[in-house]
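Colleagues,

For the teaching module next term, I've prepared a clean inverse folding example: a structure given as tokens, and then the sequence designed for it. I'd like students to try predicting residues themselves before seeing the answer, so please don't circulate the second half yet.
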């Protein structure tokens, strides 16, 4: 019952933060709302309490599909909140927070059945790198969606809705590639630590995850090379960013969903 109350409070804080930022931004040229930031910070703290309580109860692994989703959203929110200090990510949070709220509620109302196991320190490092990379690349994917929307509106000579208070397209693209570079480096570390610390990255039960992850790495590497050498921007950057993140989703959440829900 206590977990449910905290989950409801967390979801309420997330929805309040997203709703008030959506109301506040158009009236203040995209600036951050103090109420939204405060509510978001409270939601993240409560979310962290729920996630770490679940992790302690189940010794960190194996994470079920729902719990892994909740942890991923928490890390994404933390990273986005930290980056918000130096980069304009307010609009990303408007979409991120409601999804986080729904994940928190589902994780409490319909938790997965997990068996506690212990993990070697090297494996923990790999998991931390993987989840951090997922968080950064998720933010990059959301930023790509905004770039696509803004680019489309500009091509049609429209300036409606959210695009009226977004930063200039060039600045939005620069932020996208900053996020991609950071996420790419962390994803590279995740792959390296996986091969170093895991017993067999090509074992039957994780081979598909490895293949999808390396495929995503190749997509991001191609995009960053193309941007640096060929000047790829806008629509090409958006398509490859979303393609890479789709592979990341298939690598982690897709495999967990199939193993836990379809093959159980």
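(Answer key — instructors only)
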């Amino acid at each position: 019952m206590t977990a449910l109350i905290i989950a409801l409070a967390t979801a309420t804080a997330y929805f309040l933060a997203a709703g008030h930022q959506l109301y506040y931004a158009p009236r203040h040229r995209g600036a951050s709302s103090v109420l939204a930031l405060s509510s978001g910070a409270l939601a993240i703290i409560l979310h962290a309490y729920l996630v770490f309580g679940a992790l302690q109860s189940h010794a960190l692994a194996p994470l079920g599909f729902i719990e892994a989703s909740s942890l991923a959203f928490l890390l994404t929110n933390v990273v986005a909140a930290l980056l918000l200090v130096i980069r304009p990510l307010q609009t990303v949070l408007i979409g991120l927070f409601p999804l986080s709220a729904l994940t928190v509620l589902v994780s409490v109302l319909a938790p997965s059945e997990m068996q506690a196991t212990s993990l070697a320190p090297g494996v923990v490092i790999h998991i931390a790198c993987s989840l951090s990379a997922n968080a950064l690349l998720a933010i990059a994917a959301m930023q790509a969606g905004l770039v696509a929307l803004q680019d489309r509106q500009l091509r049609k000579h429209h300036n409606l809705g959210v695009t009226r208070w977004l930063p200039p397209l060039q600045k939005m693209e620069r932020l996208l590639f900053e996020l991609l570079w950071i996420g790419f480096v962390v994803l590279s570390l995740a792959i390296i630590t996986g091969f170093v610390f895991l017993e067999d990255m090509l074992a039957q039960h994780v081979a598909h995850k490895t293949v999808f992850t390396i495929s995503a790495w190749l997509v991001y590497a191609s995009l960053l090379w193309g941007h640096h050498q060929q000047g790829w921007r806008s629509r090409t950057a958006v398509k490859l960013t979303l393609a890479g993140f789709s592979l990341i989703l298939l690598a982690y959440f897709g495999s967990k969903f199939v193993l836990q829900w379809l093959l159980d």
